[in-house]
Amino acid sequence: MSQAILALDQGTTSSRAVVFDAAGTVLGLAQRELPQIYPRPGWVEQDPETIWATQVSTAREALSAAGLSARDVVALGITNQRETTVVWDRETGHPVHNAIVWQDRRTSDFCARARREGLEPLFRGRTGLILDPYFSGTKIRWLLDNVDGARARAERGELLFGTVDSWLIWKLTGGRLHVTDASNASRTLCYNVHARGWDEKLLGILRVPASMLPVIVPSAGVVAETDPALFGASVPIAGIAGDQQAALFGQRCTVPGRVKNTYGTGCFMLMHTGERVPQSEHQLLSTVAWTRDARTEYALEGSVFVAGAAIQWLRDGLGIIGSAPEVEALAGSVPDTAGVMFVPAFTGLGAPHWDPLARGTITGITRGTTRAHIARAALESIAYQTADILECMQADTAIPLADLRVDGGATRNDLLMQFQADVLGVPVLRAANAESTAFGAALLAGRAVGFWADDGALDGLWRVERQFDPGRSADAMTEARAQWRRAVERARG
Ligand code: ADP
User: Fold this and answer.
1) Assuming Cys at both sites, which of 46, 104, 246, 479 could form a disulfide with 440, CB separation 3.0 to 4.6 Å?
2) Helix, strand, coil shares of the chain as percentages rounded to 5?
3) Is 486 in contact with 359 (CB distance < 8 Å)?
4) Which residue has its alpha carbon closest to ligand 1 atom 7?
5) Is residue 12 situated within a structural domain?
6) pLDDT (tens digit, 9 = 90+) per residue, 407-430?
7) Which helix (H) or strand (E) holds 50?
C-alpha cells in the first residue's frame, strides 16, 4: 500500500493541494484561483464558502492526480494565508460576512486612534506585532460593529472567529472542531506571545468576546479526523501553520539564526530565533514559528512591500518588458546599472525605514541610461531591500548570517540570486522543492504521525537546487550599498 501526506495550502490568490511521498516527492498537485472582492478602495474580501469549496476540490484533484485514495493518506497538514478573518455562526456554520483579507485597510482609523491613545507599546509588548490593520484583531472588531446584530450574537456566544486554518478545520470536521495553532494565533493581536494564550486585556480593548476564539492546539499533532464523507475515508489532521511559518519549517530553518526569504509580489523573511521571544529594535515582528512537543519556537519577521511587484511595474507601468522572466535577459545585457538606483517605495518604506510617505524614485539617470539599466536597478532593489532587513535581524539577534534559503516565483531569476549573494556576502541557497509552504505543512503533519521518524529525516528531505556564492569584492559591495542608502534618503517623504 502506498502512503502519502496531503498538504492543503490555502493562499491569498489560490487554493492548492499537494500530495507528498516519504521521499518528499510531489505525487500530485492541484490549484484553483480564488476570486478577490474589492467592495471599496482599500477593502479586500473573499467568500469563505469559495475558500472552502476551492480547497476541498483541489484536495480531491491532487489525490486523483497522484492516483491515490484517502486511505493512502496517513495525515493531512494545513497552511494558510495569515490574518484573514472569518466570523461564522456556531449553529448553522454560515459566515456572517465575507472574509476580510489581510491586505484590507478598513481599520486604519481605529489603529491610528489606538496609537494616538498610546496603546501601541501594550500591543507590541504582548503580541510582538505593531498596531496595524494587517492583523486580525481589528478586523474582528469591525465585523462585530458593522454586521447587523453581530455584536449581540457574539456576546450570546453564537458566533465563532477563525483565521483560515480554523475555518477549514471547522469545515473538514463537519463543524465539530474550532481550533487554531499558535503560529496563526500570533497574527491576531489577541494572542500574548509571552503567556502563550489569548490575552484578556487586549480582547477587552478590541471588544472581542473570548467565547468566539478557537482553542489553540499544537502545530504538529493529531487534532481530529476529517469527516469521512469528504474524501471517502477519514484522514487525521496533524499539522497546522501559517504560510510563512510553514515555509520556514519546509526550508528547515529550525535552528536559531537560520533565515528563509520568499520572493513573490513582496518578500517575506523569517529568522528562527529559538525558544525565546525575540525583541526587535527595528520594528520587526516577533511571531510564533510553531509549537510542537510542548515547545514553542519563535521567529523574527520582516517584509519588503514591493519586490516582484517592481518587475510587474516594469511590465505594466513602463511597458519595457513583455513578461516578468524577460527582465533577466534585459538586465543581463548591461554589466551594471551605471549609477542608476531604483527605490520602489510605491507604498512607502517598511523596515528599517518605516516611512509611509516615501515614494518610488529612480536616480542617477544620464543621457546614456537605457531601459536595461532601469531593469537591472529594479532587480537589484529587491536584493538591497532584503539586505536591509537582514541587517536589522542580525543586529536584533546578534547572530551572524551563515546563508540565506530562498523560494518563491522571483527566485527563478539567476541574476537576482547572484546579486543577492554578492550584496549579502553569504551563499544564497535555492531550494530544490519549490513548494516550501506546502512542504512545511506536510512535514509538520507527517512528523506528528511518525511518517518520518525524527527531525533528521526531515532535514534529509531538504535539498539545494542551486547555490549562489558571493562573487564580488566586499569593498565594491560596501560602496554599492552606500549608494543605495543615498538613494533611499532621496525617496523619503
Ligand atoms: P505571489 O505568491 O506573491 O503571487 P509568486 O511567488 O508567484 O508571487 O511570484 C510572482 C512574482 O515574481 C511577480 O511579482 C513577478 O513579477 C515576479 N517574477 C516572476 N518571475 C520573475 C523573474 N524571472 N524575475 C524577476 N521576477 C519575477
Assistant:
1) 246
2) 40, 25, 35
3) no
4) 409
5) yes
6) 998 999 999 999 999 999 999 999
7) helix 48-66
* DSSP β-bridge partners for residue 355: 349
Structural domains in the chain (count): 1
Number of residues that this document lists for the chain: 493
**Block residue for cell numbers 531591500:** 385
Nearest protein CA to atom 15 of ligand 1, as residue: 308
Among 58-62, 217-221, 347-351, 391-395, the minimum mean pLDDT is found in 347-351
CA pair distance 134, 189, nearest whole angstrom: 10
With a 6 Å cutoff on the Cβ, whether 188 touches ligand 1 is no
The pLDDT value given to residue 238: 97
* Structural domain includes residue 116: yes
Please give the mean pLDDT across all residues of the chain: 95
User: Is residue 292 a part of any domain in this protein?
Assistant: no
Distance CA 467, CA 281 (A): 31
Give the pLDDT band (50/70/90) at residue 405. Answer: very high
Q: Which residue has the cell 494565508?
A: 81
In this structure, which residue's CA is closest to atom 17 in ligand 1? 308
Q: Is 28 in the pocket of ligand 1 (CB under 6 A)?
A: no
Per-residue pLDDT, averaged over 6-14, amounts to 94
Could you tell me if residue 397 is inside a domain?
no
Q: What is the residue range of 18's domain?
A: 4-243
Q: Name every residue whose Cβ is closer than 8 Å to that of residue 131 and which is 6 or more positions away in sequence.
A: 111, 114, 115, 119, 120, 123, 124, 189
Any idea which residue has 516519504 for its cell?
Answer: 22
Those residues with Cβ within 8 angstroms of residue 315's Cβ, 6 or more apart along the chain or in another chain = 321, 322, 323, 324
For residue 344 and ligand 1, the question of a CB distance below 6 A is answered with no
Report yes or no: 324 and 367 within 8 Å, Cβ to Cβ.
no
Which pTM value belongs to this model? 0.93
Q: How far is the CA of 264 from the centre of ligand 1 (A)?
A: 5
Contacts of 99 (CB under 8 A, 6+ apart): 45, 46, 47, 48, 51, 84, 85, 86, 164, 167
332 CB near ligand 1 (under 6 Å): no
Assign residue 162 the CATH number of its domain. Answer: 3.30.420.40
Q: Give me ligand 1 centre to Cα 31, in Å.
A: 17
